[in-house]
Write a structure and sequence with these properties.
Number of domains: 1
Number of strands: 4
Distance between the termini: 38 Å
Number of helices: 5
CATH architecture: 3-Layer(aba) Sandwich
Low-confidence stretches: none
Mean pLDDT: 90
CATH topology: Glutaredoxin
Shape: globular
Helix content: 40-55%
Radius of gyration: 13 Å
Strand content: 15-25%
Largest sheet: 4 strands, mixed
CATH superfamily: Glutaredoxin
Amino acid sequence: MDVLTMLTAEKPVVIFSKSTCCMSHTVKALIKSFGANPAMIELDKLPNGQQVERALVQLGSRPGVPAVFIGQQFIGGADELISLNVQNKLAQLLLRAKAIFIWGR
């Protein structure tokens, strides 16, 4: 099992970030605004953080962080997440992943 699969298994929302990345904080705030509680993985605080970041880049995350997984599926970074929100698709993804249970906006 690869490192990304292990880190995202059985968690509805996982955000890979760095503690100093402002876009990571923005993405976290957006997801929390729906009532979800994302698992945050701070790559700059992990001993194998560089290895994980390389795996994210290989997956297509540009730049490496923030990288968002919803329902164990790679969604992308801040641009993709904001785009999904503008298209009113983010709430449905969170519902399907069981990160939230109701949404009525």
